[in-house]
Amino acid sequence: MNLFTSKEFNSLEDLFLDQIEDLYDAEKRLTEALPKMAEAAQNPELKSAFQTHLRETEDQVRRLERIFTLIGKSPTRETCAAMKGLISEGSDMVNATGDPNVKDAALIAAAQRVEHYEIAGYGTARTFAQHLGYNNVADELQKTLDEEGNANKILTEVAESYVNVKAQHAHA
Ligand SMILES: [Fe+2]
Ligand SMILES: [Fe+2]
Prior knowledge:
Blueprint: H1 12-40, H2 44-70, H3 81-94, H4 100-132, H5 135-171
Helix pairs in contact: 1-2, 1-3, 1-4, 2-5, 3-4, 4-5
One fe (ii) ion binds at residues 27, 30, 57, 60, 118, 148.
């Protein structure tokens, strides 16, 4: 979208395509951001969670490309302003100095915002696909939705183990 055009939605198909183009842009941006998050993480579990989710994210980009093909469109990016903002906050955490454990918690806080945003986006897109009768597409979107939910769960587990370690130190 730029200053001289506005979105035009005449059908749910139009809106669905817009949503997929937005997700495609968001995932492409994430494939550039996640390596920096992995590098910045100190905790090996967190580093490995970011690396694993980078590989999943690369698969998700290819999955979206298959979805474009399934609906007879070519892969197109629609700038995702929200993901740009979330990644910008993530890069503030990547560049932060101070206690590395607290910095890990900051990276998790930024990453979980990303996962929740993706869960919202894919949940909506999956439901639109179901309404449109695009059953294969809905199945593909559900796979990504499950991966995003799992990534979020792993981040919660790492965050909780980090809090537990801190609590043990406090009692020592
Ligand atoms: Fe993703
Ligand atoms: Fe994700």
